[in-house]
């Protein structure tokens, strides 16, 4: 945990537990969720770092209902259901109930860029009131948003139904949502698209560049007051950027 004002480390946890932690999410109850691409596991801790749930088998990748293969990210609904981007190998999105029971999965890849196919789903964002789970489909350079299957009203669509998408965005490494705007970071695709921080309006699916030239961005988070935090793998740092027009 880092003090956003001073940049100093206030508290740390996980040494000797994690091997290669990749995705980090805090849910509405202040529980901390971690995906570990080295251990092929998912962890849930309370705010005091007490272990509440662990899924996947230690150091054993797999593609069945009880295993992951380098899971990249996680998103949690208010009812406790959660989605996992399973990630570098399996190219699928998995939905679980609050107890860790698998409810649905969709995605996979056959080497093509057809709808509902992924090539490294590197990050996900849940927009509950729109019943959407959005996927940063990294190597296909696009965002795909699907029915999350968490609504009981007219939006009660099956899990995994494609609703909207944005193509040609770049190699997207991370996405998060703020008031129906999807914020994401990309890396250069080597063909003229430079790294950028972008915003996608979920009401019309249009994207616009917010900041250019953020090299090696790998993760991001958005605070309640609209500050975007971008984690860079090189240099190894976190930068803060105010989100305009929040």
Automatic annotation (TrEMBL):
Residues bound to Zn(2+): 22, 122, 218
SUPFAM superfamilies the UniProt entry points to: NHL repeat (SSF101898)
Protein name: peptidylamidoglycolate lyase
GO cellular component, one term: extracellular region
Comment on bound cofactor: Binds one Zn(2+) ion per subunit.
Cofactor: Zn(2+)
Domain of life: Eukaryota
PROSITE patterns: NHL
Residues bound to a protein: 88, 138
EC number, UniProt record: 4.3.2.5
GO molecular function, one term: metal ion binding
Top-level EC class as recorded in UniProt: lyase
Intervals holding NHL repeats: 7-48, 60-99, 117-149
Biological process annotations from GO: peptide metabolic process
């Amino acid at each position: 945990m880092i003090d956003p004002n001073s940049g100093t480390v206030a508290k740390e946890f996980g040494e000797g537990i994690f091997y290669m932690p990749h995705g980090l999410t805090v849910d509405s109850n202040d529980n901390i969720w971690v995906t570990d691409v080295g251990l092929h596991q998912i962890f849930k801790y309370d705010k005091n770092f007490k272990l509440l749930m662990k899924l996947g088998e230690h150091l054993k990748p797999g593609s069945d209902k009880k295993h992951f293969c380098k899971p990249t990210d996680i998103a949690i609904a208010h009812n406790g259901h959660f989605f996992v981007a399973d990630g570098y190998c399996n190219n699928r999105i998995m939905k679980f109930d609050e107890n860790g029971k698998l409810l649905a999965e969709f995605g996979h890849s056959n080497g093509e860029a057809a709808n509902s196919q992924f090539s490294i789903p590197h990050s996900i964002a849940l927009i509950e009131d729109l019943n959407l789970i959005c996927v940063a489909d990294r190597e296909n350079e696009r965002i795909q948003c699907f029915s999350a299957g968490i609504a009981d009203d007219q939006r009660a669509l099956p899990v995994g139904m494609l609703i909207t998408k944005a193509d040609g965005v770049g190699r997207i490494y991370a996405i998060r949502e703020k008031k129906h705007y999807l914020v994401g970071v990309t890396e250069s695709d080597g063909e003229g698209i430079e790294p950028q921080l972008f915003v996608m309006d979920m009401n019309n699916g249009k994207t616009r560049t917010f900041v250019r030239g953020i090299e090696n961005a790998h993760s991001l988070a958005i605070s309640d007051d609209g500050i975007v935090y971008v984690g860079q793998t090189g240099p190894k740092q976190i930068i803060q950027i105010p989100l305009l027009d929040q």
